[in-house]
Amino acid sequence: MNKSYELYISEIKNNILSSQEELRLAQIYKDKGPEWEDARDAVIKSNLLYVVKVAFEYSQDPIKVGDLISEGNLGLLDSLTRFDPSFGIKLITFANKEIRGRMIKFILKNNYFSAFKLSYKTRNQAYKVKAFFEEYLSANGRKPPVETIKRKFQINTSDAEMYLCMADSKTISIDYNLEFEGSTDRVQIEDESITKPDDILNQKQVSEIILKIVARLPLRERTVVNRRFGLNGEQPTDLQTIGLQFDLTKERIRQIEVSAIKKIKSEMERLKA
Predict the structure, then answer these.
(1) Which of 112, 135, 159 is the last residue of a domain?
(2) What is the pTM of this model?
(3) Which end of the chain has fewer beta carbons closer than 10 Å to its terminal beta carbon, N or C?
């Protein structure tokens, strides 16, 4: 880790408040009571370490991490302005989605794709929005507005904006991040040629190619990939549930998944050559 971040972490890790103290100070801030600005600052400082942790989940690049921390801190501050401590939950529980959403939107807007990791649930939703985005654009000659995405997919404004950014991206990336299942394996399939003006491929075509590759995988690998990522009519399923279906351990299913994704990546690279 960069020494400047080590220093920063050593400074902020001593600011963490107990749950009770955080709620007390958050209430002072909400009520604009005595010394409410000090209360606000203390609550924010107490949660800065979490923002750093999330930033490093998305990237190890020192410059990118700095940008992501800045975005995450803005999300944290914005969340505090809407936070109601009377519910008795910690601020970070309430702010988590806003922090991650801001980082993801920043990554997309700045083409930080090499840093970008997504859970399979988010990626599946992204594909659905992408397909609708292209259909809407083809039929109407313009991009769908945020409100249309909100209504269509029953999501909030922040998520709708994030998925629109992803749908409007010119880089096709299938980035399977397995870290949330307790693994550090990460395999990326990315076709940057889509950014070329004369390239006839679009997201739908590339998705179709990937589905064809998946269909040629051995039965067990094909089934695991389909169930894991919700392909071919399957519902997205976690590793443990798939393991129970096959009478295999979660770790064994993860290994099968990684093997399958590497084969997909290899075939995509062969087709690009």
Answers:
(1) 112
(2) 0.51
(3) C
- Residue 119 domain boundaries: 114-272
**Among all chains, which residue has been given the structure tokens 């001593």?**
14
Sign of CA dihedral 135, 139, 143, 146: negative
Count: domains in the chain: 2
Q: Where are the beta strands (DSSP E) in 52-195?
A: 172-177, 186-191
Q: What is the DSSP letter of 172?
A: E
231 & 156 share domain: yes
138 and 260 in a single domain? The answer is: yes
- Residue 143 gets the label, from left (phi > 0), alpha (psi -120 to 50) or beta, of beta
Assess whether 153 and 173 both reside in one domain.
yes
Could you give the CA distance from residue 252 to residue 259 in angstroms, rounded to a whole number?
11
Q: Which two tokens stand for residue 244?
A: 């129970």
At 190, phi and psi to the nearest 5? -135, 135
With 0-12 CB in 10 A as exposed, 13-18 as middle and 19+ as buried, what is 58?
A: buried
